[in-house]
C-alpha cells in the first residue's frame, strides 16, 4: 500500500488538528448547556399549580439572583430558571427544585418592582435578603401586577 503525504507530513494528526477537535468538542458541550430546560415539575407540583389556576408561565429564562444585598457577603449570579404565577402563588424553579416560593401566607418582607422591561422580586431582609430579577417574554407591567396580586392576598405579608 502506498502512503500519500502532503508537504512531507506524516499520517498522524498535528497540533492544529487537535486544537480544531478540541474547539468542536467545546462548542458541542456549550451548545448542549445552552439548551438546558428548566420547566419540568413533578406530577404533584404540576397538579397543585394547575388546581391553583396558572395565570402566567415562562420557562428557561435568565434570572439575576442576588443574595445578602448590602452586606459584606453580598453576591449575585445569573441562573437559568422558570417562573410560574398562579392565583395563589409565585414559584421560581429549576425543574423540580424550588428557588423561591411566595404565596398568600408568606410572612417575609416582599417587594415587586419594575425597571423598564425587567421585573425584580425582593424577599426577606438582612442576611436572609434575596432578589430575583428577570425580563419576562412579554408584558412586564402585567407580570409585575400579577405577582403583586398574589402577594397582596396574604394578611401577614408586608408589601412595598
Structure overview:
The protein has one domain (43-159): Pleckstrin-homology domain (PH domain)/Phosphotyrosine-binding domain (PTB) (PH-domain like, Roll), CATH 2.30.29.30. Helix content is 27%, strand content 37%. It contains three helices and eight strands, in the order H-H-E-E-E-E-E-E-E-H-E. The longest helix is centred in the N-terminal third of the chain and has 20 residues, at 15-34. It is globular, with a radius of gyration of 23 Å.
Summed up:
27% of the residues lie in helices and 37% in strands. By secondary structure, the protein is an alpha+beta fold.
Q: Count every beta strand, where a strand is a DSSP E run of 2 or more residues.
A: 8
CATH class: Mainly Beta
User: What is the H level of CATH, i.e. the homologous superfamily?
Assistant: Pleckstrin-homology domain (PH domain)/Phosphotyrosine-binding domain (PTB)
The CATH topology comes to PH-domain like
Total individual domains? 1
Rounded to an integer in angstroms, the radius of gyration calculated over CA atoms is 23 Å
Query: What is the helix tally?
Result: 3
Helix/strand structural class: alpha+beta
- What is the average of the pLDDT values? 83
Strand count, sense and barrel status of the largest sheet are:
8 strands, mixed
Q: What does the overall shape look like?
A: globular
Terminal CA distance = 82 Å
Order of helices and strands: HHEEEEEEEHE
CATH architecture: Roll
Placed side by side, the strands forming the largest sheet appear as 4-3-2-1-7-6-5-8
Beta fraction: 35-45%
Helix share, percent: 25-40%
> What's the assembly state of these chains?
single chain
Uncertain ranges: 155-160
Amino acid at each position: 500500500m502506498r502512503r500519500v503525504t502532503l508537504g512531507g507530513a506524516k499520517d498522524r494528526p498535528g497540533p492544529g488538528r487537535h486544537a480544531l477537535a478540541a474547539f468542536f468538542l467545546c462548542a458541542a458541550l456549550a451548545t448542549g448547556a445552552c439548551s438546558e430546560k428548566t420547566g419540568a415539575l413533578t406530577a404533584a407540583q404540576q397538579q397543585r399549580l394547575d388546581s391553583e389556576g396558572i395565570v402566567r408561565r415562562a420557562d428557561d429564562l435568565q434570572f439575576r439572583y442576588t443574595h445578602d444585598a448590602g452586606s459584606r457577603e453580598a453576591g449575585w449570579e445569573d441562573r437559568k430558571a422558570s417562573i410560574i404565577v398562579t392565583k395563589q402563588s409565585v414559584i421560581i424553579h429549576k425543574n423540580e427544585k424550588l428557588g423561591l416560593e411566595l404565596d398568600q401566607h408568606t410572612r417575609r418582607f416582599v417587594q415587586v418592582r419594575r425597571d423598564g422591561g425587567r421585573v425584580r422580586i425582593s424577599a426577606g431582609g438582612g442576611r436572609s435578603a434575596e432578589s430575583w430579577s428577570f425580563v419576562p417574554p412579554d408584558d412586564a407591567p402585567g407580570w409585575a401586577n400579577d405577582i403583586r396580586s398574589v402577594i397582596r392576598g396574604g394578611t401577614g405579608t408586608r408589601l412595598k
